[in-house]
Design brief:
CATH architecture of chain B: Alpha-Beta Complex
Largest interface: A-B, 11 and 17 residues
CATH topology of chain B: Spore Coat Polysaccharide Biosynthesis Protein SpsA, Chain A
Strand content of chain A: under 5%
Largest sheet of chain B: 7 strands, mixed
Helix content of chain B: 40-55%
Radius of gyration of chain A: 27 Å
Shape of chain B: globular
Strand content of chain B: 5-15%
Strand order of the largest sheet of chain B: 3-2-1-4-6-5-7
Structural class of chain B: alpha/beta
Oligomer: heterodimer
Shape of chain A: rod-shaped
């Protein structure tokens, strides 16, 4: 419940983007439901032959792994974008510097 | 006959001690040929950029250090944007002797040749690599030769020359920016490009600096390269585009 409220609060303050907010909201909701519907958790645990607490811990672990994987995918994509942006900026800066030099040379030529 | 527009690309990171001499040597070798020299300053903290500019090179500066692979790709992007026909890439630390530039360009101009690699091991030159690096080189040479069916003797050489037609591939997001070595050769081979090697003598690194300096970096390099080659083969097998 606290996690749910905290996630919504971060989204409200624009500290968490919508696509990440949705994911955290989903995780919070699932946890909320699982803990809320203890009978369902007990039933599920029975199917796997585990205790409800072990199943809950395992689900939490899997959820975190998936979250980390999603963040790694985003990170990889953004690293590529940053690389391309950096190169673009460097090349544009060089072009700008070259053009400025040319303008100065032309001005000097005209004035002389 | 229209003369080829040639770019000499020199990626540099904190090479204020060597950059001036490297540029002077390149200018000496390429005197009167109208080649452009570009130094890609990869976020150096010293006076690399200033010294390169004073020596007459065009300087492109990254706002921060992005790594060797990104720096050489910036050189490729500059070449493509400015319509260069041929590109030669040499290191800024003085290990690559510029006297081989013309030989590399002549080889590149031969029909059917898309890229040239300067090999330290094609003929016996007395070059001695540290033992760990030597083992790595032998292993990756073996892998590349096995996959391509060709005989490469130096898959980690940074002394390379490329034809314009290869630049579009090299400037794409497919380019392995981390450590573009053996995996790049395999990718280029699968994309239908023809790479040849020429023998060359490389100077020993006077400072002993290397981007593969520490044991941790060596392990990372081997692991990364193996994974990169594995994913290239996987893409090939599953039919995912390589170009």
């Amino acid at each position: 419940m606290l996690l749910l409220l905290f996630t919504v609060s971060l989204a409200r303050k624009r500290k968490l983007r919508e696509n990440y907010t949705l994911l955290w909201l989903f995780i919070s909701l699932v946890l909320f439901l699982i803990i809320g519907e203890y009978k369902m958790l007990t039933g599920l645990a029975g199917i796997f032959g585990a205790s409800p607490n072990s199943l809950l811990t395992f689900c939490g672990f899997v959820a975190l792994l998936l979250l980390i994987l999603q963040l790694s995918i985003m990170n990889s994509y953004q690293a590529m974008q940053i690389k391309n942006l950096t190169q673009k900026i460097s090349l544009l800066e060089q072009k700008f510097y070259q053009n400025s030099l040319l303008k100065i040379k032309n001005k000097v030529k005209i004035s002389s | 006959m229209k003369q080829d527009k040639v770019l000499i690309s020199i990626p540099a990171f904190n090479e204020e001690d060597n950059i001036r001499l490297t540029i002077e040597k390149v200018k000496e070798v390429c005197k009167g040929k109208g080649y452009e020299i570009v130094v890609v300053n990869d976020g150096s903290k010293d006076r690399t950029a200033i010294r390169a500019a004073k020596s007459g090179a065009t300087v492109i500066s990254h706002p921060f250090n992005m790594g060797y692979g990104v720096a050489i790709q910036t050189g490729y992007k500059y070449a493509l944007e400015n319509d260069f026909d041929l590109l030669v890439q040499i290191d800024a630390d003085g290990q690559h002797d510029p006297k081989y530039i013309l030989k590399m360009l002549n080889t590149l101009r031969q029909p059917g040749v898309d890229g040239v690699i300067g090999s330290r091991f094609k003929v016996e030159t007395g070059y001695k690599a540290p033992i760990i690096r030597k083992i790595g080189m032998i292993f990756f040479n073996f892998l590349v030769n096995l996959i391509t069916g060709k005989r490469f003797t130096d898959c980690t050489s940074g002394y390379q020359a490329y034809h314009k037609k290869i630049l579009k591939f090299l400037t794409s997001d497919l380019f392995p920016c981390d450590y573009p070595d053996a995996d790049l050769i395999i990718m280029l081979y699968f994309s239908g490009f023809n790479l040849v090697e020429i023998p060359m003598k490389m100077q020993e690194n006077a400072t002993g600096k290397s981007m593969h300096g520490s044991l941790r970096k060596n392990f990372y390099y081997v692991a990364k390269m193996c994974l990169s080659i594995f994913t290239i083969m996987l893409r090939r097998i599953t039919g995912l585009a390589t170009q």
